[in-house]
Specification:
Number of domains: 2
Structural class: mainly beta
Shape: flat
Strand content: over 45%
Largest sheet: 4 strands, antiparallel
Radius of gyration: 18 Å
Order of helices and strands: EEEEEEE
């Protein structure tokens, strides 16, 4: 979860209750801008072995790109990126 504090700091609440304070300006980042696309990625873990073998698979279509990469016999890195004209609901 991300919250803004009155002092201008951003509080990032991480897994298991960890907290991190960061200042965008202090880190040298400019104000964020929306760039008309959204992306998600992750790492899937299969304790008994992933079913895809050691390979790379990409899917391309108009406005969307997705795929996965086998990085071991038990783990898959996956991603999806797509065009989006708005940020969606807040």
């Amino acid at each position: 979860m991300i919250e803004s504090n009155p002092d201008g700091k951003t509080l990032l609440k991480l897994a298991y209750g960890s907290k991190l304070f960061a200042k965008q300006k202090w880190m040298g980042f400019r104000k964020t801008n929306y760039v008309d696309h959204c992306a998600f990625h992750g790492l899937a873990s299969y304790s008994e072995g992933q079913p895809y073998g050691l390979r790379v698979n990409y899917i391309y279509d108009r406005g969307v790109r997705a795929g996965y990469v086998s990085i071991s016999l038990t783990k898959i890195y996956w991603f999806i990126c797509f065009n989006s004209s708005s940020l969606g609901p807040k």
